[in-house]
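Board work, copied verbatim: Methyltransferase domain-containing protein
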Amino acid sequence: MAATIPMQQVDHFGPVAADYAGFRPRYPEGLLQWLAEHAPARRCAWDCATGSGQAAVELARRFEQVIATDISEAQLAAAIKHPSIVYRRAPAEACGLADYSVDLVTVAQALHWLDLGRFYAEVRRVLRPDGLLAVWSYGLLETDDAAINHCLRGDYHAIIQPFWPDERRHVEDGYRSLDFPFPEIRAPTFVLTADWALDDLLGYLRSWSASARYRASHGIDPVAAFGTRLAPLWGRPETRRIIRWPLSLRVGRATRRRSERSTAG
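↓ predict structure ↓
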């Protein structure tokens, strides 16, 4: 019998690493600042399943050191470089960090790929007392034009819907159906925004794992044909439009262990 591969050891984004690095939206600065302010200290943050480092580079502006891990060599090769970031190829469930060495753990748009039981055990092992775990996701984008939004939802999404893995449903429900065994903290509402021309939007669509699976299955790029249909609605290709993604955020705090409470008391 073949061995079962842990979920996070499946590299969903290696084939689209360049598009991922170039076209994925940047996370709101207010989100990373809020997390830094609520962490017990700013010594070390672990950005798990970092991809090409969109969250890690913002954390590096606020923490002395950031350890950013991923299983994808292609993603890490395309990651944003920063002197305070150490990139490592490692699964989420066995990151190699020392016990109680991290003030904040972040998982951006990737919790649905992980073996949650093993990952949460790893989080408890590496977080310092009162450290934070923050996970977030974002679903379908909206532009400033209703006709473009209708085309995106009714046309492109219909074409590639069969090529999303089952785990994608957790992104759509904002991770609310996933187990999250940490005392939760109420967080503000954050929104991702971008100012994009048509080629930026099409590059983002190519960064989807479902788009890569469609290409592998059919041998053609679904984004190219969709771009032809979308162009008359967009107007001049260089026209820039505001793109928005509502962001779903869950934040929990590591409870102090009994031995630590008695020692502190």
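The CA atoms of residues 258 and 264 lie 10 Å apart.
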